[in-house]
Amino acid sequence: MTDSRASRHDSRTEAIMKAALDVALEVGYARLSIEAVATRAGVGKHTVYRRWCSRGLLFLDAVLSLNTEGLSHPDTGDVVADLRETMTKAVKLLAHPPWGPLYRALIGEAQHDPEVAAALNRRFIEPQTADTLARLKAAKEQGEIAPDFDLDLAFDILSGPLYYRLLITQQPVTDDYIDSVLRAVFAGMSPRSRPVRRRS
Amino acid sequence: MTDSRASRHDSRTEAIMKAALDVALEVGYARLSIEAVATRAGVGKHTVYRRWCSRGLLFLDAVLSLNTEGLSHPDTGDVVADLRETMTKAVKLLAHPPWGPLYRALIGEAQHDPEVAAALNRRFIEPQTADTLARLKAAKEQGEIAPDFDLDLAFDILSGPLYYRLLITQQPVTDDYIDSVLRAVFAGMSPRSRPVRRRS
Amino acid sequence: MTDSRASRHDSRTEAIMKAALDVALEVGYARLSIEAVATRAGVGKHTVYRRWCSRGLLFLDAVLSLNTEGLSHPDTGDVVADLRETMTKAVKLLAHPPWGPLYRALIGEAQHDPEVAAALNRRFIEPQTADTLARLKAAKEQGEIAPDFDLDLAFDILSGPLYYRLLITQQPVTDDYIDSVLRAVFAGMSPRSRPVRRRS
Amino acid sequence: MTDSRASRHDSRTEAIMKAALDVALEVGYARLSIEAVATRAGVGKHTVYRRWCSRGLLFLDAVLSLNTEGLSHPDTGDVVADLRETMTKAVKLLAHPPWGPLYRALIGEAQHDPEVAAALNRRFIEPQTADTLARLKAAKEQGEIAPDFDLDLAFDILSGPLYYRLLITQQPVTDDYIDSVLRAVFAGMSPRSRPVRRRS
DNA sequence: TTCTAATCGAGACGGTACGTCCCGTCTTTTT
DNA sequence: AAAAAGACGGGACGTACCGTCTCGATTAGAA
């Protein structure tokens, strides 16, 4: 049995990330210490520091190691329905326990630590954004979106309100809220613009 | 004897908040310690703890003690122009040095500390929101906004993208960006909707 | 109305000393703080500091305020019996709970604070010593003590062993021990010297 | 490869005890703080707390680390002369600067802290006492001390007066005083007893 | 197999900051 | 005028973690 993958090195790495999540879930990221993580993982502190140069980056890896299977980017031909699906799934995963508080903490950490901010963008935000942008591009080509509409901006306008609720007002991000954002953004605030049809 | 109000108590309070801002600007909020603030303010640590029960709440008060004269909520009759003014001023104040990093740090702290989150909302977000909502309500009554448009939602859709850039992608929030958000939100993404006129 | 003795000032003083003893008995002198005493006495700290310039001197006064009625200096004509009485009473009072630990603490404090040491000597040790020295002098005149024996030294030799046990070895100072000290000191260690008669 | 014993651990321990003595000599034991000792030793506070659980026990170790070469327990056949030698040397070391004040402070601390008291007895008082008791035993066997004289008591009677002067009256303990104690104790106070010969 | 050489756990280490306690002084308010 | 109440600057407490640094004790691949 020539080594079942998961070299010693990798098994340590995983144990540490697992321990980091456990500790974060138990006492919150604010009180997560490298010492506690190392102890919990049954590992020397050095072994942690050898892999991550800051608490934030360890935490980032730990959070991103969670399976993102919950996220989906379908293309059924109906862009509003597809976006609703994407946003609903994402919100369900990112904005609710148990990962909601951790994701918020991660973004919070990014406000203090540029390295975390950069890595979070590069490794999570940008890939997810790219998928959605591709869907928006297809929609524009299908004539579902005005041809002069900047799609990057479209993404911001769709995502922004959800993050605003998550991070600022901390009001719950419900399916209805997502729905009303979609309707409003597609219709526009101006009275001349036409509303999209309500969800059946 | 009008008494030069600024009792000893108040003068300490101000000195501490001033010191907190100084320290935060010098080393960043992440490295701000109560100890350093107290020393800088020429005050015992207990004098700080007597007033604030956490670093976050002290920092919140310190940041909010800055004059918010930069913020404006005009009503010229042109809601888009007025919102542009409000948003531009707010962004100029909150998203750029020297206060930009501090405001971001404050929101970051709010992700870890529910008390900070609540206080930030109650003392800053909600009042500012109320002013803008009043302006949106007037606009709706004037027929500048579709009569069935939820104004709370409108506020989220306008603010969200700015916060998204500030907190997540960390791309600069320029006047042009604000402008394009306004146009997009008023016009809607749907191809049938009519664009608002471009800024002259 | 020439004031009914126990002016406000004196009543405070007594309340403070009482409180000091209470606190010392509860948590030990080592953990006695002026703040605790003041609070216990229902008095401002200033009122304590106005009367005593150190914790040690307050404690000294508090301990010495205890009635020393337990101490006696009889003169029955039998110097050994009289000394036995004096020493037994003193040890009973000073070396046993509840005052034993306090007296030890007071002497302990005197090792750190010269003012306490001086005051303790002047106000307690010397007066008690004087009484015993007077008794020894009478005994010498009666021929019960060798005429060339230095009485100051005699006092040291009688007291020393008791204090040695109290402060150093912390062995209990029993009546039997006092008795054997008296016998030994009167008889001398030298084999030629004659023993005093045993206590019946 | 004789290994220059003095592992890192031991070198810290010694540095801390040295620093403790330095600080105690400079500002007195009453004002000695763990913080100051650690700083002086160039060591973290935890490194001190890891070794000693109280200021008193650290101080005890520091004081006892002084070489006690000054103490001697000779046996020349003349018990009085030998005791005089032992007592004189001990007093010279323990009752005079620079160690006098520290030894007094140590005994003072023992009055507040039972752990210090116990350790002081076990590690210093008892060994020294044992040596002297052995000498007294030899003397008794040689007929220099009355055969029915309790030697433990003898030790108390010889030591007590010295400690009494050191701790209570704070009169200087001179060679003459030691001499007169010896004479008095050997001769006894009783007029019938015979004086030992005076020191030539 | 035997020997490097790396890795590991364990945790000591110098250091910073924590939040608390108490010092002795100073203010404020009440009586 | 004296008091209680307690705010104040300051110093130290004992603790928690930081990130670095020894330690031996496993490994594990190269000789």
TrEMBL record, chains A, B, C, D:
Domain of life (superkingdom): Bacteria
Pfam families to which the protein is assigned, alphabetical: TetR_C_11, TetR_N
InterPro entries reported in the protein's UniProt record: Homeodomain-like_sf, HTH-type_TetR-like_transc_reg, HTH_TetR, Tet_transcr_reg_TetR-rel_C_sf, TetR_C
Key words of the record: DNA-binding, Transcription, Transcription regulation
DNA-binding region in chain numbering: 33-52
One annotated GO molecular function: DNA-binding transcription factor activity
Domain HTH tetR-type: 10-70
Keyword Flavoprotein attributed: no
Protein name per Swiss-Prot or TrEMBL: TetR family transcriptional regulator
